Amino acid sequence: MDFVFLLKQHVGAPSEALVQENDFVKRGQIIAEKPQGALGANIFSSVDGKVKTVDTDRIVVEESQTDFTKYIPLQGATPKELIEESGIVGLGGAGFPTSVKLNLHFEGKGTVIINAAECEPILSHNIARIEKEPEKLLDGLAIIMKLVNAQKGIVAVKGIHKEVIEKLEKANTDSRVSIHELDNIYPMGEERAIVRETLGILLEPEQLPMAADAVVVNSETTFRIREAVEDKKPLIDKDMTVAGKLKENASIHVLLDVPLGMSVAKVLEKAGGLGGEYGELIMGGPFTGKRTSLEAPIIKTTGGIIAAENFMPGPTKIGLLVCACGANRERLEEQASSMGSKVVGVEYCKQAKQVKNTRKCENPGKCPGQVQKVMALKKTGAQALLISNCTDCTNTVMSCAPQLKLPVYHCTDGALRAVNYKLIRRFRREGE
């Protein structure tokens, strides 16, 4: 079986290969390093085997009788050195090198917030890992707090996960650490939403949590930091959720410690196999995931593989309403094409502010209304809408689109239908 290691699995410069064709590598051996003086991350082989190919963008290793209980340990002496050497990046999907993110020192205050929101629907591997090993998450938090000299730690988790919260509270022996319960809406796991909910500070779209004397770290990233520091283990395995149109129809599987570089096809086999019909394969979650293929390799930021339901036939003309919290314009255009619909208009949520090369919501998860945008798309001749809005924004779209006789499709529909989840449309907050 071939394992493919892309040389760019992170924010920054591609890693530079350290191996040549026909070299034999071991699990845990560094095979590509970040360029000197550049933003990047090291890459390690997750298997034993012979190097088949070294290209400008990838290294291919033919796996051979790997003992997945073993690995070559890291050589660093301090937590800072080990985290940088390990190749850990933001494992929630951002992919920013963790050693750079944690290269800070709070003076007399500061908060480390663990993002355990499991924000995207269907994805459930983060909660499964925490439920299994709550002590290790708290150990990782302690390592980060000491590294950045933080005075307080918070684990932010949705309140629906009562058993996980109870286990965390029982395992927690540090008076500086608290568990914060989040509402069960999307995008509660967005970095600025986490800061707003836990610290009561709404950051500007351009601001980082440092502006609130905080740093936000994904829960799996925290687990892998603990592994690097305490077990000297490089980043070679990934937790993920595999779901959708599998042989066990509408099933959801959590796979822990999947070796990086394994193909999507092999991961699907580990979850029981792909079903006969599906609309598309999504790498990631229903909101922000991207279309992928059976041949694509699992990378550091892979959180899920979803075999979505067949596409519903769309209208002849469709309008796109793009939200900064969900699928971008290109992703919606891709889905519209698969529905057989021509895009006649594109509007952006009024809170989707342009920041450098992307858009960020001015107040994630809290929507001021979308009536003007919906009416503008109606004027373009759109016969229906395809949207990527967060839970609250979708609520406001549904308050006006039906009155304008505009059916609404959502970028998450195919994924949610594939697991028999309720579609994202209107919802009621508690107390309404």
Q: How many E-type strands?
A: 22
Distance linking N and C termini: 54 Å
| Helical amount | 10-25%
Q: Briefly, what CATH class of the largest domain?
A: Alpha Beta
Low-confidence stretches: none
Structural class: alpha/beta
Number of helices: 12
Strand content: 15-25%
The CATH architecture category of the largest domain equals 3-Layer(aba) Sandwich
CATH fold description of the largest domain: Rossmann fold
Q: What strand order characterises the main sheet?
A: 13-12-16-14-15
Shape: globular
Number of domains: 4
CATH superfamily (homologous) name of the largest domain? NADH-ubiquinone oxidoreductase 51kDa subunit
Pfam family, one: RnfC_N
InterPro entries: Ion_transpt_RnfC/RsxC, Nuo51_FMN-bd, Nuo51_FMN-bd_sf, PR_assoc_PrdC, RnfC_N
Domain NADH-ubiquinone oxidoreductase 51kDa subunit FMN-binding: 83-225
Keywords: 4Fe-4S, Electron transport, Iron, Iron-sulfur, Metal-binding, Repeat, Transport
